[in-house]
Design goal:
343 residues, alpha/beta, Rossmann fold, 2 domains, seven-stranded mixed β-sheet
Amino acid sequence: MKILYGINATGNGHISRSRIIVSALKKRGHDLHCIFSGANNNLFDTDVFEPFVIKKGFTFSKQNGKINFLNTFLNIDLVQFIKDIQSLDNDYDLVITDFEPVSAYFSKIRNISSIGIGHQYSFYKNIPMTTKMRFTRILFPYLYTPIKNIIPSHFSHFNQSILPPFLSNEIVNHKLKANSKNNILVYLAWEELEHTIKLLNQIDQHHFIFYCSTKNKKTVNNVTLKPFSENGFKKDLIENKYLITNAGFQLPAEALFIGKKILCKPLEGQPEQEHNAKILKDLGYAATTKTISINSIKDWLHSSKKIKIDFPDSLDLIMDMIENKDKDFSYEIDKLWQIKKTY
């Protein structure tokens, strides 16, 4: 099939997940054309996505670790959004979107068969949700990416046809010694960089490896700053014992598979991250905090416990679901979860 694959570039979790699926689809002989949209100036290791184009899309504006709704609204450019849709060719057999709106609306307007893949589509199901998320799902994801056929994923199935997180071969089949280093890996893409560095410098009995928008690796006292790198980050994720991150989906899922001690700080005002944080806390999978502070980090280090979850590999099933989108796969999904182990 000739497939248009839309990728939301506002967070690296969408990119990481799509990298796995795009690569697998190409290996099965499909012709892939990719779109990135959303404000991410740190795209890296993009060879697998070729050929791809970058569109503006929609992006949340943030300030001091919070959503700035006024700036988000003011930055919406509907004229450009329509132009981006019109710029796409019409000769696709299928559109797949990982929560990317240009491709989703393109499929709807051009009446092309489409599938939504990712964590956000679990909100179509009857799962536990925060009150804010239950209200927000009326617009998000239904309006943001209007897709009927979905392949959802979550940390748990919640007795629904929901897939486990799908993880890269680098994570599943790694040969490194997991959690062998006592460092704290930090990925806080939504927080203010300089403020966070100064805060971590005050916890000088620990060493932090901080992936951020630096151009070159450098050290600021007890904090090593590293530029974004798929292979480098995966290696540090596997080897280092602790993780501090925002409450996205893909990275916490990978950390749970490896067996890390996790502290999540959701982006304030972002309903999905607030939902993820609550689910992770309720399941006992991670500690959460509303604010990254000296006390919240120290309390977590003192009381945290390691959780390891052997999420089963769902990639082959995802391929089957894409290639047979009208088939009911509820039995196969249920069977997949039966081999999960938690300890």
